[in-house]
Amino acid sequence: MKGRDLWVFFPRVSQPVRLSLAQRLVGQVSNGDLARANFVGDYTPKLADIQTIDGKSLYVLELTAVDRSVTYQRVRYWVQQNNFWPYKAEFYSLSGRLLKTCQYEEFRKLGGASRPTRLIMTDALNKGEVSTLDYSDLRLRDLPDRVFTKDYLKRLQ
Fold first, then answer.
1. b/e map of 95-122 (b: 16 or more CB within 10 Å)?
2. By C-alpha distance, which of 84, 90, 157 is closest to 122?
3. What Rg, from alpha-carbon coordinates, does the chain have?
4. Residues 132, 103: contact at Cβ < 8 Å?
5. What is the pLDDT of residues 59-90, one digit of tens each?
6. How high is the pLDDT of residue 111?
7. In the prediction, which pLDDT does 35 show?
8. pLDDT in tens, 85-120
9. Which of 50, 87, 105, 122 is the most exposed place for a label (fewest CB within 10 A)?
10. Domains in the chain and their CATH numbers?
C-alpha cells in the first residue's frame, strides 16, 4: 500500500501492477478489506442509532467515504458501547446497494491489543457465499523501507 494505492509485484512482470481495492482477493474478501480498512481516515462518521442486539448495547454509525478511492462508499457499523469493539458492518456501493456484511467475533489479545480473531464476510449479492478469516498470530514488527522494493521482493522467490 502506498497511500490509497495497492500495488503487487509479480517476478515475471517487470513493473509492479496496481490493483483495485474493490477487486476480490479470495472468496468474499476484497483487497481493500484486508489492505485498507481505515474507517477513521477514509470515512466521515455520524451516529445513526443506538440498538440492543443479543443483549449488547450498540452504537450504529453511518460512515460516508471521504472520496471515491476507498473500497466502499458507505458503511453501516455497529460498535459495542461498553468497550467500542466492532460487532458487525454492512458495506454499500455508491448506488446504495448492500454488497457484503461482516461479523466480528472471538476477541483475543493479539499484537498488544484486544482484536476480533474471526471475521465472517457474507456476500449480499450471491446468497450463501461466505468467507471466514481466522487470525491466530499477530506480531508488530518494524520493517525497513527497503523490504518494500522490487529488488528485495525478487530475493523472496
1. eeeebbbbbbeebeebeeeebbbebbbb
2. 90
3. 17
4. no
5. 999 999 898 877 788 999 999 999 999 999 99
6. 81
7. 40
8. 999 999 998 899 998 899 999 999 988 889 888 989
9. 50
10. 21-154 (2.50.20.10)
Average pLDDT, the chain: 80
Q: Give the residue carrying C-alpha cell 457499523.
A: 77
Strands (E), 31-85: 43-53, 56-65, 74-80
| Contact of 106 with 116, CB cutoff 8 Å | yes
Give me 87's grid cell: 460487532
Q: How far is CA 124 from CA 28, 45, 54, 100, in A?
A: 10, 23, 22, 5
